[in-house]
Structures are given as structure tokens and as C-alpha cells.
Request: fold
Amino acid sequence: MRKSSQLLFEHHKQTAGKIHKAFLTAIAQTIKHHGGQIRDFQGDSILAFWDGKYQKDLRNAVKAAFGVRWLLSTKLKKYFEKYTELDYGIGIDYGEVYVFRAGIKRNPDNNDLVYIGKSVNFVVAIANQACLPSAIVISSDTHHNLDDNLKISSKGYNMWEDGTIYWNGKNYDIKQTAYYYSFS
Reply:
């Protein structure tokens, strides 16, 4: 969620907290519904992983993104609009992720898991650059590995547009979409 700090200046802290909580809860439940595993909450964002060994994992990640987009654009929109206009970005990439424990040894309050790797850094960059209405951005590799039913709509339209993201001193080809669908 972009400009989430602004909520503290526009609303009481309890209201700002409720907006954050509703936003993160909707996303977290959608991720879990589609088989994702939440690994980190960073203020107003969530880092989630899917196993990634199989194409179904990529499908589920993209379906979760479509579901989040639907929730925030239709189902929950009227509730958020009372307080703020939501702006957000969703990024998806796949690749190796390295996990290690960092912090002060044997101190649970100052020790945590850290996730690093090109895909982790890239997905954060593309999510930060994703803009409404095309709030879902995926890497070209992710798009290449999707089934046709997640590339072409039921009416025969290409759901994804070509785009470019600047990251780490280079431009990268990406695919972006404003597409979404409901789930039960």
C-alpha cells in the first residue's frame, strides 16, 4: 500500500491501524487461499512465497494476485474509499531464494530469518513500480511459464501488456495487467 504513512496524518491512529489491518488481512487470506506462505510483513506490505517447483505454483501466485486485485478494486473498495483511495502494486517473479538467520545469536527478540536472492529483490522493485490500473506486474520468465488460461481471457483477449521496469541499473522486460477475477 503506497502512502500508508499519510494515513496517520489524515486519520486518528486507530483508524489508520484499522485500514492497515483490513488491507493486510484481505491480502494474507487471499495468499493463503491460493496456497502461498507468508514470510514477512513489512509495515504496509507482505512478502509471500509459493514452492515454485511446479507450474501450478506460478498459476496459484498469479491467481492470488488476480484475487487481491479483485478484492481491492471491487468487493472491498467501498469500505476503503470512506477513508482513502488505495494505491498498491503486486509483483511476481520466480527463482532461487536463500534463507538465513541473522541478528543477535540466541536472542529471539533480535534474531530473524532473512530472505535474499535476485528474485526477492526484483519482485520488491517491480511491486514498487507497479501502478494502478495495471497493479500486477510479473517477470517475463513468469509470464513465459504461465498456462494460456492465465494469459488469454475467456473472451480471447491478451490479458497482459508489455512493459519495462528499471532495476539495478538496467531495464527489464515485464508483463503487466489490470485484469482480475473473483474467487470463492
In short: Residues 13-33 form the longest helix (21 residues).
